[in-house]
C-alpha cells in the first residue's frame, strides 16, 4: 500500500500546487495521458482536463488547501477522504475519491464524491 499512499499524496499535492508549470510537471509523471477525473460537477479526461479543473477550483476557493484523510488501498485501487478549506481550519468541503492506476502505475481514473458542500 505504501506506493499507493505516495501516489495519493502526490495527487493531493497537485490540487494544492498553484504554480501551473510545477503542477503540470507533476501531472506528466503521475497522470496517464488519457486519465479521467469525474465528480458530481465535472467529467474530464487527459492531463489538460485535470489541470484546468484544478486551476478552476483554486480560482473558486483562493487560498484554500486540500488535506488528506485515511487512505485504504489494495492492488491498483485506493479510496481516501479529503477536505478543502483554509489552512489550519475545519474544511468547508469534504469528500472521498476512488483512484485507480493503469498498468504503468499512473493514475488512470479518479471518481470523486462530495460529502459536505457549503450551502448544500
Kindly summarize this structure in a few lines.
The protein is globular, with a radius of gyration of 13 Å.
Q: Characteristics of this structure?
A:
120 residues; alpha+beta; six-stranded mixed sheet; 3 helices; 34% helix
Report how far the terminal alpha carbons are from each other.
34 Å
Based on secondary structure, the structural category is alpha+beta
What amount of the residues lies in strands? 35-45%
Largest sheet: 6 strands, mixed
What topology, given as strand order, has the largest sheet? Answer: 2-1-6-5-4-3
**Unreliable stretches:** none
Order of helices and strands: HHEEHEEEE
Tell the overall outline: globular
How many DSSP helices? Answer: 3
How does this model look, in words?
This protein is of the alpha+beta class and 120 residues long. 34% of the residues lie in helices and 44% in strands. It has a six-stranded mixed sheet with strand order 2-1-6-5-4-3. Helix 1 runs antiparallel to helix 2. The protein is globular.
